[in-house]
């Protein structure tokens, strides 16, 4: 089986487990990630943090985003521009939300496009080494590549439920490892790229 086929199998398996979680457990987990990382994520004034509006059965990162904004972060959300590209649009709680592709919501095209310093990254599966499996479209991998080509080195924090952990994620050349992983059971730092 190829790495891509293995990833597809792991993606389906872990998303099915995530979908089966009790709605009350999802709410509790979303509040837990705030407790684990609300103060642990180091911010300087005007640090740009990309979050995401949860879709389907994703963990709800909005309480954490609000807290980071209260601590001085500037927030942005992803918007799909075409089949290859996402950009990150400035978000405020007063912003009108529109459909921004892939089932997500975010600010409209009038919002400023920002380059994140910290990215809260959605995923379908992860391992204890910081490797992730996304949803298969590659938007985040390409966005990270574009940021790095501009000389940016965003800190990558995966966000998921514990049930999405797998023993090992098959590696492919384009894969980008996470700096940290945040689940309902804690905030794990993989390298020296994140303070906290």
TrEMBL record:
<keyword id="KW-0479">Metal-binding</keyword>
<dbReference type="InterPro" id="IPR024185">
    <property type="entry name" value="FTHF_cligase-like_sf"/>
</dbReference>
<dbReference type="Pfam" id="PF01812">
    <property type="entry name" value="5-FTHF_cyc-lig"/>
</dbReference>
<dbReference type="InterPro" id="IPR002698">
    <property type="entry name" value="FTHF_cligase"/>
</dbReference>
<keyword id="KW-0436">Ligase</keyword>
<keyword id="KW-0460">Magnesium</keyword>
<dbReference type="InterPro" id="IPR037171">
    <property type="entry name" value="NagB/RpiA_transferase-like"/>
</dbReference>
<keyword id="KW-0547">Nucleotide-binding</keyword>
<dbReference type="GO" id="GO:0030272">
    <property type="term" value="F:5-formyltetrahydrofolate cyclo-ligase activity"/>
</dbReference>
<comment type="similarity">
    <text>Belongs to the 5-formyltetrahydrofolate cyclo-ligase family.</text>
</comment>
<keyword id="KW-0067">ATP-binding</keyword>
<protein>
    <recommendedName>
        <fullName>5-formyltetrahydrofolate cyclo-ligase</fullName>
        <ecNumber>6.3.3.2</ecNumber>
    </recommendedName>
</protein>
């Amino acid at each position: 089986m190829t790495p891509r086929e293995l990833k597809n199998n792991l993606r389906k398996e872990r998303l099915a487990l995530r979908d089966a979680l009790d709605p009350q457990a999802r709410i509790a987990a979303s509040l837990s990630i705030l407790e684990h990382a609300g103060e642990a994520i180091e911010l300087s004034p005007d640090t740009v943090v990309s979050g995401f509006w949860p879709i389907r059965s994703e963990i709800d990162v909005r309480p954490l985003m609000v807290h980071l904004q209260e601590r001085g972060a500037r927030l942005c959300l992803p918007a799909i521009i075409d089949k290859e590209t996402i950009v990150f649009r400035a978000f405020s709680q007063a912003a009108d939300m529109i459909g921004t592709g892939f089932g997500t919501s975010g600010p409209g095209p009038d919002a400023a496009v920002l380059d994140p310093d910290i990215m809260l990254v959605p995923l379908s599966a992860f391992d204890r080494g910081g490797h992730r499996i996304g949803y298969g479209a590659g938007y985040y991998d390409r966005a990270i590549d574009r940021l790095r080509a501009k000389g940016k080195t965003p800190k990558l924090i995966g966000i998921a439920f514990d049930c999405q952990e797998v023993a090992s994620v098959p590696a492919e050349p384009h894969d980008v490892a996470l700096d940290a992983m945040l689940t309902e059971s804690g905030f794990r730092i993989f390298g020296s790229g994140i303070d906290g």
